[in-house]
Design brief:
single chain; 193 residues; alpha/beta; Glutaredoxin; five-stranded mixed β-sheet; 36% helix; globular
């Protein structure tokens, strides 16, 4: 026998809550942004999109900075702070961020690549050129990045280092994207949702 149906309001799914990662907390507490604040202080203020760049001679690094500048309104609406990690000096980095309207964004200069190599982030490196570039990276380089952003020298930065993006909240990593080749591209405005 069928009875009348009762409509139960659907609630939004609760976001997954991860416990704080003690190793991550220690590392972020010991890492300073160019503004003088620790990454842990910045994370405690609001969720963070931690964006690791390749070298500044890389067209994909400039494309990433530009993509994040375009996603800034979405990130602001979501209450997410973008923070960039780069291998260059603050002086070398600044013009690249100013060019795309992100001169005031938080940045970490990591020339010794301590964050890049940290077990919490475990970003890939590649020295095998066919794997490093791959057909997709060459195609993307030719189609979008090189024509729009140009090429340059890596300077003292490591050209074999691949980038990555991490969404951090509540002192934990909620989502990670580790590039496997240079042509990988993500939607920064929606990453971590």
């Amino acid at each position: 026998m069928k009875t009348g149906s009762v409509s139960v309001p659907r609630s939004e799914p609760k976001p997954k809550v991860l416990p704080p990662d003690p190793d991550l907390v220690e590392r972020l507490g010991a890492t300073y942004a160019e503004s003088g604040q620790t990454l842990l202080n910045l994370l405690d203020e609001k969720p963070m999109l931690l964006i690791f760049l390749r070298h500044f001679g890389c067209a994909f690094s400039r494309e990433t900075i530009h993509d994040v500048s375009k996603a800034q309104p979405q990130l602001d609406r979501r209450g997410v702070r973008p923070v960039f990690v780069h291998m260059g000096s603050p002086e070398r980095a600044r013009p690249f961020f100013v060019r795309f309207g992100l001169g005031a964004v938080d940045r970490v200069s990591d020339p010794q690549m301590q964050l890049y190599q940290a077990p919490e982030f475990h970003l890939l490196k590649s020295t095998v050129l066919p794997h490093f570039f791959g057909a997709r990276a060459y195609l993307n380089l030719a189609k979008r990045a090189l024509w729009r952003y140009g090429a340059g020298s890596p300077g003292k930065e490591d050209p074999t280092q691949l980038p990555g993006v991490f969404f951090l909240r509540d002192r934990a990593i909620y989502r990670a994207f580790r590039h496997k080749n240079l042509g990988d591209r993500i939607d920064y405005g929606m990453f971590g949702v």
